[in-house]
Structure formats: C-alpha cells, structure tokens
Specification:
It is a single chain. The chain has two helices and seven strands; from the N terminus they run E-E-E-E-E-H-E-E-H. The protein is an alpha+beta fold. The protein has one domain (4-98). A hairpin with a 3-residue loop joins strand 1 (4-9) and strand 2 (13-20). Helix 1 (42-58) runs antiparallel to helix 2. The chain is elongated and about 50 Å long.
C-alpha cells in the first residue's frame, strides 16, 4: 500500500497527499468521501469550495422542510464538468468542512514553511 501524508479529516472523509518513497507529492490533493475519490489541484479544490457554497445557497429554499437533512435531492457540482453528486444537506455540510479544513491546513503550511519561515 502506498503511503500518504494526511492533510485533514473528519467523520465523513479525508484529504491527503500521496507519497512516493520519502517524497510527498504536493501538486495534487486526494479527497475521499462517500465511496468517492477526487484527485484535485489546490486550484480545483478552491473551485470545489465555491461550488459547495453555491449549492448551499441554491438550496436555502428548503429551510422549512422536515426532510432537509436527509433528502438526497441536493445537487453538488464538482470541478469535473461531467460529474455532479446527489447529497443530503448533512453530507454537503460535512464535505464543506472537509474541503475548507483542507484548504486552511494547506494555506497554513504554505505560510509557516514558506513566507513565515525565518
């Protein structure tokens, strides 16, 4: 099994970098949740974050619905134009946390080990 360097995880999924030997491949992030895996660049991960926000905003009309958190009628677009996901609002919020937490960690590491390094 190939080794990984974990970026972020929650109860719904995980984001990590692949490693080859002792070298970590930092140009793409593996995002895995709900039996689905995406291999995104940081730019695509940022785009996915925006698409998640769009989906949340588009589905605010369901605020009063009792099935809002279990309904799988929410469409989540992905940076892959051919792939959209049907998710519940609970899953959507978990994906949002996973992506935002990953981006925060990537930005923090870039600052600490980049411009913030003395």
């Amino acid at each position: 099994m190939r080794e990984i360097e974990q970026i972020y995880h929650n109860n719904f999924g995980i984001a990590f970098y692949w490693k080859t030997g002792k070298e970590t491949i930092l140009d793409k992030v593996q995002l895995v949740f709900k039996e689905t895996g995406f291999y995104f660049t940081v730019q695509e991960l940022n785009q996915f974050c925006s698409l998640i926000e769009d989906s949340i905003l588009d589905n605010t009309c369901c605020e009063a619905c009792e099935l809002k958190h279990s309904c799988h009628k929410f469409l989540l677009k992905t940076p892959c134009s051919q792939i959209d996901l049907a998710v519940s609002m609970t899953e959507l919020k978990s994906i949002k946390d996973l992506v935002e937490g990953s981006l925060f960690r990537i930005d923090l590491d870039e600052y600490v080990y980049g411009v913030g390094l003395n």
